Amino acid sequence: MKAVLGLSLKARLSLLYAVLLILSVVIVGFCSYWNVWQLFINNKSAHLRARAKPIIAHWLTDYGLVSVEHPASKLTSETAAILARDLTSKQSSAIILDNTGKIIAKGKRLPEEPDAPPPELGQFKKAMSGENEVTYFANLNGTSLLVMLIPLRPRPGSPKVFGVVQLSTGLREINRMLFRHGAMLMAIVALILILGTVAGYWLIGMSLRDLQGLVKTCNAISSGDFSKRVSVNTTQGEIGRLATSFNQMISQLESIFASQQRFVANAAHELLTPLTGLKGCVEVLLRGAQDDPATTSRLLKAMYREVNRLIRLCEQLLGISRLEGSSHVHRQDVVVSEFFADFMPQARLLANDDRLVLRQGPYARISVDPDLLKQVLFNLLSNALRHSPDDTPIEITWRLLPDFVEIQVRDHGEGMDATTLSHVFEPFYKGRSHTCSYKRSGLGLSLAKSMINAHGGTIKVESAPGKGTIVSFTIPLSSN
Fold first, then answer.
1. DSSP string, 321-338
2. Were 149 and a residue from 43, 134, 209, 275 both cysteine, which residue would form a disulfide, CB within 3.0 to 4.6 Å?
3. What percent of the chain clears pLDDT 90, i.e. is strictly above it?
């Protein structure tokens, strides 16, 4: 078993195919041989019986055994010898047995006529009990014989059996024909096995060729080459669907790793900027600027701002990492209108004017973490305020969807081009902006997406240059 398990998949499938083919062909061949043998034996038996019955019937009539009360008393050696000789030929021999199983006559007279095997007591008793179809095989001097017992009755259907006729014939011709049939069958079986095994090995190899390509692609990917893809002859079948799914998975992994590399590079860049500023301030202080109180105060304030910037950046990164799952989401049932009644005064303090417009939607109860929802909305409003003119409104509204509530934040600002829109949720990505020079990390929308995904919702952005931006996200409805 260990040796078989150590073989390749192609070798194991080929071995399994060969074993099943051998079993099926051998079973079919054996059944064919058995049926032919049974056909020959049945034909031989029918021929013997058809030849013997008219002779026995004529003999019963000639010797007056049809109507006598005790026919066994008239079964003598002389009358039995006549019947035995009539039933004996060059192909078959006959002997007559009385009702005790004693041989009273033999039909062989010529040397070329076959010898009769000795009777078997068990088979004789079957015939004496009235069983008509008593046939068995015997062996005499190395020759196979077919033996048939025919009960002697005064007339057909009579319960009186006063003797038994034993007919025997050699099976040499049948055995010779069966040998030729078996040899031909074995040759056909061997040819089928050879051709079938070779064809099966080739077909299995063709079927597994795509798997070999999959292995090569996996090896290339493990070395870092994510550009490789599995090429298959057809997308149908299990291997074709596997290859298609594998290619899709690699495309997603390639995108994820590329995004991760950009994330690491951007994170390093974002961290490097405040650290460089801190280093510069420390170098100035080390050169003796600490003796000038004004310079020292200015440098310390700059260092304080850079440290706060680092803290905010780290908090946002930790927030995204923490929200990979939903374990940090503390859900509760919240009525949307009540939530916004509490949220809008805080939001207007952030905007510092009356630009925010709340458009009431239908009654809805959602399952949400209110603190996270506020953080999402503050991030979206901060972006909207930053990228829209001071005299344009920022609208907030909601609507019902199947199993969800969709909340929208809309501004009428500068909008985004297609390139920026395709990367808007990537961490640290900063699209082109001509209206703001404020230093920011580019993590606001990434953090918002993580929060929405943690709730089981989705978020999308619709925008066009000069036509403003609409950010829509969904929150599941409460089960109550």
1. HHTTSSTT---EEEEHHH
2. 134
3. 16
> How far is it, in rounded angstroms, from Cα 431 to Cα 414?
12
Task: List, as own/partner pairs, every contact residues 290-298 make where C-beta atoms lie below 8 angstroms and the sequence separation is at least 24, other chains included.
Answer: none
Q: Looking at 266, 299, 322, which one is the last position of a domain?
A: 322
Greater model confidence, 42 or 439: 42
Query: Nearest CA to 56 among 171, 169, 161?
Result: 161
- CATH number of the domain within which 114 lies: 3.30.450.20
Strand partners, 145: 138, 170
Residue 203 lies in a domain: no
3-state secondary structure of 234: coil
For CA atoms 292, 295, 300, 306, the dihedral sign is negative
Q: Give dist(CA 452, CA 323) in Å, integer.
A: 9
How much is the CA Rg of the chain, to the nearest whole Å?
51
Confidence of residue 435 (pLDDT cuts 50, 70, 90): very low
pLDDT higher than 90, residue 404:
yes
Domain CATH number, residue 423: 3.30.565.10
- Give the CB-side neighbour count of residue 298, counting CA atoms within 13 A: 8
Residue 110 CA: distances (Å) to CA of 51, 86, 115, 322, 377 = 20, 13, 10, 110, 120
Question: Is 313 part of a structural domain of the chain?
Answer: yes
3-state helix, strand, coil in the chain (%, to 5): 55, 15, 30
Shared-domain flag, residues 168 and 286? no
Q: 219 vs 318, which has greater pLDDT?
A: 219
Q: Which two tokens stand for residue 141?
A: 């001097």
| The pLDDT of residue 234 | 57
Q: Which of 145, 126, 158, 137 lies closest to 56, judged by CA?
A: 158
Number of domains in the chain: 3
Residues with Cβ within 8 Å of 37's Cβ and at least 6 positions away in sequence, in order, are: 174, 178
Are 311 and 417 found together in one domain?
Answer: no
Together in a domain, 41 and 153: yes
Edge-to-edge strands of the sheet including 459-463?
A: 356-359, 394-401, 404-411, 469-476, 459-463
pLDDT tens-digit readout, 315-348: 666 655 555 544 467 788 999 999 999 888 888 8
Q: What pLDDT is stored for residue 10 in this prediction?
A: 66
| Ramachandran bin of 134, using left for φ above 0, alpha for ψ from -120 to 50, beta for the remaining angles | beta
Report the DSSP pairing between strands 356-359 and 365-368. unpaired
| 50, 77: one domain | yes
